[in-house]
Amino acid sequence: MASKVKNICEEKIVSVIEEMGYEVVEVEYAKKSDGMNLTFFIDSDKGVQIEDCEKVSKAIDKLLEELNPTEDKPYILSVSSPGIDRPLKSDRDLKRNIGKDILITLFTKIEGNKKFEGTLITFDDKTITIKQQEEVTISRNKIAQIVPIIKF
């Protein structure tokens, strides 16, 4: 059911949000402590404020009601910013972070290391290259998570 709801929302709702000038980073339909939650994580070049979340929520609420992706099962609609430290998942995320410091966590160790920190140099469909003291290229299928390193 969760993947069905997510697919319907990605197919029918994401374009509406993107037409409003926002990027939809992720759509999540998951059980939380207060019940089922349908969450749209949005981003923008200008950042995301509470007013942006409210505007998107109002714009998609009626459409969701018409689509009825949960087949009348109750849920809580949330629109949220993914946060500055969100994992980098898409090529768009990676492209925005070229030249920035990232932390790559692997599923299993390579040469005794499970974490690699460095500056994102380049990426393609199969690999990601970072610069530490030397360039390190890692297969994407070995990567569990990539997050930006936030320095204040």
In short:
The protein is α+β, with helices and mostly antiparallel strands and 152 residues long. The protein contains four helices and eight strands; from the N terminus they run ααββαβαβββββ.
Brief descriptors of the model:
152 residues; alpha+beta; five-stranded antiparallel sheet; three-stranded mixed sheet
Written account of the structure:
The chain has helices at 2-12, 14-19, 50-67, 91-96, and strands spanning 23-32, 35-43, 76-80, 101-110, 113-123, 127-131, 135-139, 143-148. A 5-stranded antiparallel β-sheet has the order 7-6-5-4-8. It is 27% helix and 40% strand. It is of the alpha+beta class.
Secondary structure layout:
Blueprint: H1 2-12, H2 14-19, E1 23-32, E2 35-43, H3 50-67, E3 76-80, H4 91-96, E4 101-110, E5 113-123, E6 127-131, E7 135-139, E8 143-148
Parallel strand pairs: 2-3
Antiparallel strand pairs: 1-2, 4-5, 4-8, 5-6, 6-7
Q: State the strand order across the main sheet.
A: 7-6-5-4-8
Shape: elongated
Radius of gyration: 18 Å
What string, H for helix and E for strand, traces the elements in order? HHEEHEHEEEEE
- Low-pLDDT residue intervals, each spanning 5 or more residues: none
Strand content: 35-45%
Structural class: alpha+beta
SS summary, helix count: 4
Helical residue percent band: 25-40%
